[in-house]
Amino acid sequence: MVAQKRTLEDSSSSHKFKKTRISDGQPSNNSFSTGLVAEEVDFPRGGGSSFTPVEVKAIRAEAVKEANEELFVEGESQQKATKKKKRKSEVQKLVEDKNDKIRIEHLNYKRMNIGMKILGQVVSIQPLALIVSLPNQLFAHVPLTNISTQLTALLEGAEESAEELSEDEEGDERISEPRIPTLSDLFHEGQYVRGVVTAVYAQGSTDHSVIAKSRDEMVKSSRRVELSLYPERINAGIQKADLKAGFTLSTAVKSIEDHGYILDLGLPDVSGFLTFKDAEQRSSTDERLHLGQLLDVTITKMSNNGRICNVVADRSIFTSSCLSEVTNASSVLPGTLVQSLITAISSSGLNLQILGFFDGTVDQFHLPHPVSEKAYKVGKKIKARVLYNYSSSPPRFALALAEHILALKPRREGELTLREAFPIGRILDGVKVTRLEAERGIVVEVQPETKGFVHISHVSEEHVPSLSSSGPWKIDTLHRARVIGYFPFDGLLQLSFKPSIIESKFLQIADVEVGEVVKGTIKKLTETGLFVTLSGSIDGVVWPNHYADITLKHPSKRFKIGASIKCRVLVVDTERNRISLTAKKTLLESTLPQISTFEDAKVGVITHAVVFKIREKHLLVEFFNNLKAIVPIKEASETPINKLADAFPVGRVVRVRIIGTEPEHSRIIASIRQASVNSQTVMADISTVEIGNIVQGTVSEIHKDNAVLSLQPTQVRALISLKNLANFRSLSVTQLCASLKTGDLLEDLVVVTRNTEKGFVIVASKPKAKEARGLKGPLSIDTVVVGQLVGGRVTLHTRNGTLIKLNSHIGGILHPTDTCDDYESGVPFPPIDTLIKAVVIGIDQSRKQLSLSTRHSKMYPDQVKPIVDREICDISDLHPGEMVRGFIKSVAEHGLFVTVGRGIDARVQIRELFDELSDNKDADVAVALQGFREGDCVKAVIQKVEKNKISLSLKPSNFVEEDFDDHDLPMDADVSRDGDTLGVIDNGVFQDAQRDDTGESSSEDDNDDTMDIDINPDAQVFKPADSKQPDLAPTLPVPSLKLTGGFQWSSTQPRTENEPDSGSSTDESDIEASSGKKKRRKRKEIEYDLTGDMHTKTPESNADFERFLLGSPNSSFLWIQYMSFQLQLSEIDKAREIARRAIQTISFREESERLNVWIALLNLENVYGTDETLENTFKDAAKSNDSKTVHLRLASILDEAGKLEKAEAQFKRTCKKFGRSSKVWTLFGEYYLRRGNLEEARKLLPRSLQSLDQRKHLKTISKFAQLEYKQGEPERGKTLFEGIIESHPKRWDLWAVYIDMEAGQGDIQSLRNLFDRVFALKMTSHKAKAFFKKWLELERKIGDEDGAQNVKQKAIEWTQRANAS
Predict the structure, then answer these.
(1) What is the pLDDT of residues 704-761, one digit of tens each?
(2) Hey, how many other C-beta atoms are within 10 angstroms of the C-beta on 1052?
(3) Distance between CA atoms of residues 735 and 722, nearest Å
(4) What is the 3-state secondary structure (H, E, C) of 844-909?
(5) Which pTM value belongs to this model?
(6) CA angle 94–95–98, rounded 5-degree value
(7) CA nearest 596: which of 585, 586, 583, 607?
(8) pLDDT, tens digit, 9 for 90 and up, residues 321-349
């Protein structure tokens, strides 16, 4: 086959063209010149040809046939002349030796030239460039401006935008222009790219690249070569005839149309088209392509006019497409899969013939197996991928057969990448040398199928000019090595044999641990810090405030370049490749625990910290790894401190004790006072000790009034009153002090109070009366029993009773009817925060809740006392005709609900309240109910008990005169036992009683959904026409029944002292005798009072709200109150209906009122709805109101609700839609800063500037700088402001904001420097007057009198200079 190819070349050597490729300077008689050129020559000279490619191909085929015949004859003659035992393989070797083999060369910087096309793999994405791995262990970089012409145009357009106009305009544009994508949006690590070499810099030359300085060897190496990915450069030379189905190209997105993308092929008069459907096949995400984004595509069809070709971006099709023929050598692009034929095998690789015409080589780095005749045979057809083209004539290409390059995927070790399988720094004990390259390095085998490369500079500590196979690194020897990097394109590990590197403790920044003590060498000392070399390429910095425990005036006297220094690692920032160290002796020698993460900050831990910021009311201290804590002023010292800055200068090391953490805010609270050396007692965490626990402890100190105990086994400090202990032991305090000694054990103590700030508890002796039934150890739901006495604190009042907190895990509920045996003398709802004792009468294991009772008969059953109000436990305990007392649970439109026992609620119908209401259909029901309040005690007569329903009556006719002497008011109710839900009455007029806050309903069984009660629907609201209102006076409730003021038709008329306190029949007869004229006059007064009351009375029912809304239908405040009222009744659906009704009712001109209702509805859906209902409501709100406002309000709602992930997602969604709004970006940044996510907040600023108009940039930067001052790092905010005023020195408003922010820091000297810089600029006298006035105010506020005088003097001098000029 070799002979065939050579004959082909010889046959074409006689044909020369006018334009030939220039060789490398080495003359060749057999230069490759064919008719396959980019342009035809009409008048060929000097052996040129005007044959068509088809004709040339036919001529060559004939020449090959003739050459084969001659070669066959020569072979026969050679066999006759030689011995008969010579084998065919030997003949073949002779043929190979006779024919010149193509030299297999490795790519290096010297062989690279401008214009070379090459395949690379992205290994790192920098802000302004890509780092690309090339074949043969080389690296290159691609600047941001060398990606595509479209991306460069976007960058230039952003830079050349008009100067910012006014900063007032917020801009409500909803359709944002295409934003400039970042390199991370366009590329990913491991991606293969085609590039063209645009520059090769000599080693040691001035750095011309856009890459920031880095100590990373890979990044440093990439600076020497610069690539371009422009499609017009990569695809240069491709002919239209080559654009057939299956041909692969590198393209760029030129524009986005309705149905797909127009692609720039880099060829004149030809464009590509990619449909949206085909574009989705390139990745699993739904994100659309960006303008200027590069795509590797495969042609599927060429249009008839030859101007548009349809392409697909499917990666699998691109990878498997194999090129079989071309019309020109320049059409063979790097990364193309081609048909090849093995023509020669050598120890350094393979020689190939590709596409039947061109020479190619494969070096050993890009072969999957070692070179051998067994693995590779001459004449075998294979598929290979083009890596790059040599600048030679005839054209020659370098190719690869490695599996990961053929598949265009990163090299992997099983499921892991090379970086994951062999992290940097890993030491390999035995790697085997497999190949030596004398001038380059050693190839080793780490494990089967895994190779490594040791550069000649890393073979030994000494300089090795050349490697020899007879030296210490001969083939098959084993050596110890360490991973120092990777060559991703070649799939090799970068190794080192140097003992210094193998034994080095630190090889990269990530190897250094926070808090570790390290030794280094002083590299240099500057004004900003001390730079220390730890090992090799790893440096650390010691900031000035960490030079020593005290401030050094002359650090150069202490730190000498080249001297050794011992430091402790303070911060390791892997993203910025920075290590911060401390040389403070206290931190170096500290044996206290180190806090470097929020999880390390456990309450009670004592450690060292450094003061780094001082506020008026607190200190900010810093632990390791930039973790900060706040020290309130009261925790700074045992003695009062007037000025924290004097007692705790910045940089001082202090001992602190963690006293609290707030994980939701990532906040740590510490105390210097509690960690002081003078305090001998170590404060333990008291969170394990609950109020009410029975504990024991040993006496550690005895004082005049109390004793200090150490509780066992928690070691928590406790105080006990000596008087309490003396009473318990029936001794005097003097006798107790004489007998009590340090170390005595005190048992049966009850925890009564906890002081979390000071870390101690107060205990008392357990009364003997409680011993039999008291707590034994910590109270839990598993150990508590019915009849046990417990203690707790009242936390909340609900309709079902009082909630009592027993400990952090168990609660109890006290029903009003269980408070006492005599309702008249008891309190149904004990005040909140009072401590009470009660007996357990029921246990709910599932809810961890106890039913409690404070009835004397239950708590002390042995003591006999009269029971006035018996306990009603079941509906069977009630019988018609009996009188019972209960408590009003709720007041509704058509009656009252009264609770007479646990789970037993009763309803009183309006007609059963008073005798007059039964006969008078025109009575005003709403006014009749105003005399009743929730929680009042009333007396009623049981009318009937049937179907778990009880009817009561409060009519005076059901009682005798003695009953009124007891100051009780009767009432009538339908009662549901154990969970009969209060149903709808009279076609839905009367709704269920609302559920209490504990989630318990007033009943548990759902036997009936409605109650059949006979009420006339027409009598729902009565007019006071013919009613005898004074007749109700004798039945009015008296103050003893807690219905103060009595029942009146008008709530504004107070009850006089002359009115009777109890009812009598004589009063009724007197009132009936009053004249009709007086009655009419009384009715008019009542109507007048009710009308006036409508403007001052708070709505208490649906009817009240409806009346108010008739007068103010556009009031969002009233609508939202109505929604809140329904939510209190657990009517979620009704609240939604009211909100929708409000939106329909409020005038469309009242945009702010409508928006308020929408926001209330969003809040409702967030709390009570699902994600789906919230999303639907949000979409409706965005359509009906300003969309941006609704987006931001929803993000705020989610943030306040603690749904942080959803809030962040909403902010991102808002920024994507309203990317041209400065307010959106600043609010998102403020959200991140409030959550302590500083890095994410700072990333938003450059992203926002890419989306915002140029005129909004200054405003946005200023806002972010202010946020840094308020919630981030003021130093960073200062840096941002410095950049603003440097580019816009005449923006006086920005100067004023900058000064205000610095004033908040309290540094007067910094403010003085700022004012001096301001007055160095030229300004009007009006502006100067404003700045001088501001300066004077600040001097008087945070400066001193001398400073104020200095301001006045400078003002005079400035005025004189201004007048003189």
Answers:
(1) 888 888 888 777 888 898 888 888 888 888 888 888 888 888 888 888 888 776 778 8
(2) 13
(3) 11
(4) ECCCCEEEEECCHHHHCCCCCCCCCCCCCCCHHHCCCCCEEEEEEEEEECCEEEEEEECCEEEEEE
(5) 0.47
(6) 85
(7) 607
(8) 998 888 888 889 999 999 899 888 888 88
